[in-house]
Amino acid sequence: MRFPKFKLEYVLELILFIIILIFAIRPVENFDFWFHAKYGEYILQTKSLPFTDQFSHTAYGESTIPYEWLFQVILYLAYTAFGNIGVQALVVSLALTYTLLFRQILKEIFQVSLIPRMFLVAFSFVIGYDFWVERPQSVAYVLFMATLYLILRRVFTHARRPLLWLTIPIFFIWTNLHASMILGLYLFFSFAALALIKKDFKLAKDLALFGTINTIITLLPPIGIKTYQLLYLFFEKREFITLVISEWVPLYELGIRYHIYLIIMGLAGLSLIWALIRRYNILYFLPFIPLGLFVISGVRQTEFSMPVILLSLIPTIQLLSRKLKLNITIIIVITIIIFINFIFFLYLYRNEATGILRLYPKQAIPFIKSNLSGRMFNEYEMGGYLMYHLGPEIKTFIDGRTDMFLPEVLPEYDELLNQQYSDKQFKEKFNHLVEKYHISYAIVTVERFTPIRRLARLVREDPSWHLVFFDDTAEIYIKDDGINEKAIQNYTLTSATPFGKTLYKSGQRDEARAEYQRMQSIALSAVSLNALGFMMLEEKKFDEAKNLFLKALEIYPSAAAPKMNLAELSVKYGDPKQAIELYKQAIRDEPERGLAYLRLGQLIIQSGGSKSEARSIWQKGLAATPDEEILQKLKQELATPN
Whereabouts are the TPR repeats (predicted)? Predict the structure, then answer.
């Protein structure tokens, strides 16, 4: 029995959207999620919008524009009702709606056939994959696509006016959750102008009318004209923003993605030129050109720009489709090829495009609440999490609300971490911030070889600062300013050096052991267990050491240090093969661990392996680690004749 072609189309498209659904399910990991959720909580609790800052001590009382308030309320409700699953369901539904609307534009308005339609839908999802996260821009993408669909339907199919009324609630929602609603106004007025040129006065009147109505909507309370003031602020500070926020970087800084965009833009331009030569009417495709170029200003505009770039290919697709007729067998074969490539690239992309994964300081929250007073210093990426769990009673130094900190705090913070300061200059700059903002304690992440770790090292060397807390995600240092004397007395670590080159100060192993055990009773961590295991290793208590290393990996499976210590135990037990595998795992978990490359290469040679393989590993170590001491040892190994 033959399979009807129209049913085949639906089956193949259903498979495509199932793939999109599967890959749209991702961990809730974007650090901005937390401040958005906190705003939602605050709005529901106070039944008001926060027009002044309530959550940071550096900008407290300053004017703010809660222009994303509606999304924040929805996000908070989804999170409190269903947890992470509710947030994931929200993002998945948005991604599916966006791609379904794009598919509808291609099929209903432009009658694009199955193969190019599936390719364009799949490509639009892949190229913008990393922007489908739990942030208001995801809703804005959908509202943009819905507006585009309604306008193109009116322009190209001459549909009646009534559907344009749907843009009114769309714009009310859009205005209250993201400032990109200005792109919707651009669509209305640009197409209205072209309709006037074409002397289609009824179409021009409809589009101008609804453009005007929706412009008025953008000026209504509760936000009103403040959204436009915010847009001007972002425009004014655009150069600085691109330096500190990765998703705002210009397109030309993105390497391979930049070249992909250039190719697609070039093909779209050639498509319009060729269509013009073939006397195809491209007048109503002209608004796509500036909107397509919009992505050059910042990669986060991808899901606004890429669809219209792809729509610019339609004249050529339609001209070619008249000449190409495909039977069902060819359609199935091409579709399978599209599916295989779609899944392959999404799988690869998913490993890189995973939002922003953070190890949040969960155990530090109760410690801060119970023991600390005064003002904190924290890093930008951690601020939203701290704001959600501590605010507004305990206020952040900085968090992800870019507009809130643009005037002063964010530039100061960026200068501290990203200028090429000497240690002395760095410490002076930090001390200036401490004095200016009356900082009493600092919470910093424990990620290795980052500017924030440099800060931790310099503070650790300063006798006026005291390490009182650490786990696998964060350290807390208290300044000796008289505000937290009890915490300093009860919790200061004087012998343990959990993130130093050695795990305890010389001659103070027993004292350090007691401090690690005490810290383990406050906050479970692989760091403490690894340190305690290492001490057992030094005392040749190998079985006890092994048990502690294994317990460390139960707490934090991605910890490299316990694996490296287990590898050395494997060497002692006469199992170099197991040691080599453990070092390989350690490198996968923490690629900057230079010692792992050094020992891995040495073990390969000692076990009779290939010297060229060992040298290749040492070369990779040179490129991966910033540890100067290890770099010198790697160079020495490479300088040794084979």
Answer: 526-559, 560-593
The amino acid present at 15, given as its one-letter code, is I
Q: How many residues does the chain have?
A: 642
- Can the peptide bond before residue 591 be classed as cis, meaning omega within 30 degrees of 0? no
User: Nearest CA to 116 among 343, 420, 326?
Assistant: 326
Amino acid at 174: W
Number of domains in the chain: 1
User: Reading across the β-sheet that carries 465-470, which strands appear in turn?
Assistant: 375-378, 439-445, 474-479, 465-470
Amino acid letter, residue 477: Y
Which tokens in the block code for residue 24? 């749209």
Domain membership flag for residue 520:
no
> Measured between alpha carbons, how far is 193 from 370 in angstroms, rounded to an integer?
63
Separation between Cα atoms, residue 2 and residue 458, nearest integer Å = 74
Residue 639 lies in a domain: yes
CB 364 within 8 A of CB 474: yes
Token reading at 408:
């002063």
Phi, psi of 468 (to 5 degrees): -125, -10
CB atoms within 10 A of CB 90: 21
pLDDT of residue 344: 74
Neighbour count for residue 30 (Cβ, 10 Å): 21
CATH of the domain at 615: 1.25.40.10
- Residues whose CB falls within 8 Å of the CB of residue 164, separated by 6 or more in sequence, listed in order: 150, 151, 154, 206, 207, 210
Is the four-CA dihedral 94, 96, 102, 107 of positive or negative sign?
negative
Task: Give how far Cα 67 sits from Cα of 235, 388, 401, 511, Å.
Answer: 16, 19, 11, 53
pLDDT band at 354 (very low <50, low <70, confident <90, very high): very low
Instruction: Please give the angle made by the CA atoms of 362, 366 and 372, to the nearest 5 degrees.
Output: 120
d(C-alpha 219, C-alpha 448), whole Å: 47
Domain that holds residue 630: 574-642
Q: Are 269 and 106 in contact (CB under 8 A)?
A: no
Residue 41 lies in a domain: no
User: For residue range 482-537, what is the model confidence (pLDDT) as tens digits?
Assistant: 999 999 999 999 999 999 889 999 999 999 999 999 999 999 999 999 999 999 99
* Residue 584 belongs to some domain of the structure: yes
Is-above-0.85 flag for pTM? Answer: yes
Q: What is the dihedral of CA 380, 386, 388, 392, to 10 degrees?
A: -100
